Amino acid sequence: QVSELVQFLLVKDQKKIPIKRADMLKNVIREYRDAYSEIVNRAGRTLQEVFGLQLVEIDTKRHTYILINNLPRAEGEYLCRDKEKEKMGLLLVILSFIFMKGNSVRDSALWEFLNLLRVYPGKQHRVFGDVRKLLTEEFVRQK
């Protein structure tokens, strides 16, 4: 069960989708529910020792997890590929804006702010493509 869970977690992480406890129970652990904690703990240790990844619960009410890379970064290496870097830049700008507004912001205020940066919801952006879709689907899915 532990190795199956490790594989399941790695696949989910590749898709950059937060992992729900309910999905782990339904798809992997199934009839071993009573051993859930032990299985998850062992899978977490395996992920850490073999892949340098840490299993972190990001939402204790909804029991949602993500994997975080714990390996030290080599000098000069970037966090992500070029296309991903551009998206990460936009995400950091948006998260900074939300943070500066007290961790909550209306959609209209966010779009007003993005308009100042010449990023428009209805227009195809030359770098980001469909910005509304990027924000509402990809960024929201990744939480």
TrEMBL record:
PROSITE patterns assigned to the protein according to its UniProt record, in alphabetical order: MAGE
Pfam families the record matches: MAGE (PF01454)
Domain MAGE: 1-143
GO CC terms, sorted: nucleus
PANTHER family to which the protein is assigned, alphabetical: MELANOMA-ASSOCIATED ANTIGEN MAGE ANTIGEN (PTHR11736), NSE3 HOMOLOG, SMC5-SMC6 COMPLEX COMPONENT (PTHR11736:SF14)
Listed name of the protein: NSE3 protein
Species per Swiss-Prot/TrEMBL record: Eulacestoma nigropectus
